[in-house]
Structure formats: structure tokens, C-alpha cells
Design brief:
Layout: E1 4-7, H1 32-39, E2 44-50, H2 52-55, H3 61-77, E3 82-88, H4 104-113, E4 121-124, H5 127-136, E5 139-143, H6 152-156, E6 162-164, H7 167-175, H8 185-197, E7 202-207, H9 214-224, E8 229-235, H10 237-244, H11 253-261, E9 268-272, H12 278-284, E10 288-292, H13 302-307, E11 311-315, H14 323-331
Parallel strand pairs: 1-2, 1-4, 2-3, 4-5, 5-6, 7-8, 7-10, 8-9, 10-11
Helix pairs in contact: 1-7
Length: 332
């Protein structure tokens, strides 16, 4: 059987400025080609989209076909094959069996392409994409591109496997196969002792790492440059709730650890349940602990790190990125 990635169209592959249908308005997100090329070895690509603009009279089914043909041709130029596109032309107030989250098209694709739905994925930027995945028993990733921020609350009710900032993160999450990089608390001491015996300089950094953004990637890459091995401490779900409140985290601890471990510049990830990483640092005894400059040289981790001979390295803030800020924007 074949595995597939069922892709939404507007807001997932191409930039959606509202009822996009003119071929001259086709603009791909910058990471689409690279991301799909990562996935194409293991997955077939099938597009399923709701095109209510047809039913609303904004454009015709012929317009949808022309746009899809252009999109498919452009992807083909980059070595990406779309097996088939399906779309529902009906507006939300018309009862039909093809509008997502209904699974008519996904079941048709299952038969036509011999798809193993259990090991396939749905990626999209609407709650109905996650509902489609749930009904079809596929795995799912919700994107914050397109209308993703607007519909995040609705999407969370469907419990997607991961909420990603972009398609690159989605591809890395799907392809993750390095479970050995995720270290349990009970094995953390033996790992740290082994690394020190090998003469490795250990670097640590900690945080919730909930919805990953460019600020996270900046501080993680800077952290990796400070030594031989980077160990990332991730707050558990209960720890995040203690620090951030009952509506957080957006992604659960297993998903957050898996996403971080998928990055080549992260060597190990471990989850800690305490409100602060102090006990974790007592075990690891890092040579360098990395923090954002906003926390300062005398951050809460400083005393334990310096007591074991380590030092604090501060990374300058990169842009105005913040998961908390994003959540606040959504709630408004």
C-alpha cells in the first residue's frame, strides 16, 4: 500500500489572499518546493480543497481547473508530482458529501491509489482539514500559514498531531526517525557522564518551545555553536501550564520534543516536569548554558551552572517573535 500526504491548497501551498482563482495570482510559499521534495520519496501527494467561491458565484469550476493545472505544472518543474486534485464547489450552507471535513474525496483517493490512510497525513490551515484527518483516521499537521492563526482555536479541538509554523516544520516532523535523540530523565545522568568522559563540551538550553518561530531557530543554532553537544530541556505539559497558564501548551510535550529532535543541530532532547530547569542542570552540569539576552547574566539558571564550572552565554533577541504574543494575537 502507498502512503500519502493530503494537502490543502490555498494557504498551505499557495498564498491565499481570499478566493484565489486567477492563474496570475498563483504565488507559492517560499518553502513549498524544498519541503515537498523532502517528502516525495515516501509519500504520494493529493490535493483536496474547498472552493466555495464557485458556489458563491465568484468564479467558475473551469477557473479552478485552470488554476490547479498551473499549480501542478509549476510543482512538476521542481520535481514534484501531484497525483490528483479534488475540490468541493459548494458553499458552507449547502449540504453535500464532498466539502471538508467530509471524507468522500479521501476515500476515493484511498481506492484509486491504494492508500494506507492510517500511515498517511493531512496538512492544512483550517479546522476542517483537521476534521478530515480525524474522520479518515489519518495523522495531521495544522499550519499557521494562510488562515491558520485565525482558526487555531477550532483546529485545536480536533487534536492535530502537531501545529507547525510552516511546511518545512511539517515535513521535518513527518520524516522524524531519530527517537534515540529523545532522552528520558532516568538516562540523562549516564549520558552526561559519558559525554564528559569523552571530553565533550556540553551545551544546554531550555524552554517550552511550543510553536516554533525564527527566534527559536536563531537561539538554537547559536547554542549549538557554543560546544560539542547540545542538549535541549523541554518543559513538560504540566510545567508549561504552571508557567504559562491553563490554555498552554499548544503542542503537547511529545510533539514538541519530536519537533526539536528533528533538527540536525540538536543532539538530544529531554523533558523536565519542574517549573524551572534547576534540577535538570544539576544532573547535566553543562559547560555552557544558553539563554536569551532578556534574561541577563544573572538568570535563574546562572548559580547552578557556575557552581559546576560552567558559564552563561546570552543570545541577542532576534526580531519580535514570541509564542505568547502569537497566542495573544489569536485570542484578540
Amino acid at each position: 500500500m502507498n502512503k500519502a500526504v493530503f494537502l490543502d491548497r490555498d494557504g498551505t501551498l499557495n498564498i491565499d489572499e481570499g478566493y484565489t482563482y486567477k492563474t496570475q495570482d498563483l504565488k507559492f510559499f517560499p518553502d513549498v518546493f524544498a519541503s515537498l521534495n523532502l517528502l516525495k520519496k515516501d509519500f504520494k501527494f493529493i490535493i483536496i480543497s474547498n472552493q466555495s467561491g464557485v458556489g458563491r458565484g465568484y468564479y467558475s469550476e473551469e477557473d479552478v481547473h485552470k488554476f490547479n493545472d498551473k499549480l501542478i505544472d509549476e510543482l512538476k518543474k521542481h520535481g514534484i508530482k501531484i497525483e490528483k486534485t479534488y475540490f468541493c464547489p459548494h458553499p458552507p450552507d449547502v449540504e453535500c458529501d464532498c466539502r471538508k471535513p467530509n471524507i468522500k474525496f479521501i476515500k476515493q483517493a484511498e481506492k484509486e491509489f491504494n492508500i494506507d490512510l492510517k500511515n498517511s497525513w493531512v496538512i492544512g490551515d483550517h479546522g476542517h482539514d483537521m476534521g478530515l484527518a480525524k474522520k479518515a483516521r489519518c495523522k495531521s499537521i495544522y499550519l499557521l500559514t494562510g488562515h491558520g492563526v485565525k482558526h487555531l482555536g477550532e483546529a485545536r479541538k480536533q487534536k492535530p498531531d502537531y501545529i507547525a509554523a510552516n511546511l518545512t516544520q511539517a515535513a521535518n516532523y513527518i520524516l522524524f526517525n531519530s527517537q534515540a535523540k529523545i532522552i528520558s530523565r532516568k538516562n540523562l545522568k549516564s549520558l552526561s557522564d559519558k559525554l564528559r568522559q569523552e571530553g565533550k563540551n556540553i551545551v544546554t538550553i531550555n524552554g517550552a518551545f511550543d510553536i516554533l518561530h525564527p527566534g527559536h531557530e536563531k537561539i538554537l543554532t547559536e547554542a549549538r555553536k557554543q560546544g560539542d553537544v547540545l542538549i535541549v530541556g523541554v518543559n513538560s505539559d504540566s510545567s508549561v501550564r504552571k508557567n504559562k497558564g491553563p490554555t498552554r501548551p499548544v503542542n503537547n510535550e511529545k510533539s514538541r520534543a519530536k519537533m526539536l529532535a528533528s533538527f540536525s543541530y540538536v543532539d538530544y532532547v529531554t523533558v523536565f516536569d519542574e517549573k524551572t530547569p534547576i534540577e535538570l542542570l544539576e544532573i547535566v552540569k553543562p559547560d555552557v548554558h544558553v539563554n536569551g539576552e532578556e534574561y541577563g547574566e544573572n538568570c535563574i539558571e546562572a548559580s547552578v551552572v557556575k557552581r559546576h564550572g560552567g558559564r552563561i552565554y546570552l543570545v541577542k533577541r532576534y526580531g519580535d517573535f514570541s509564542t505568547t504574543g502569537l497566542i495573544e494575537k489569536i485570542s484578540k
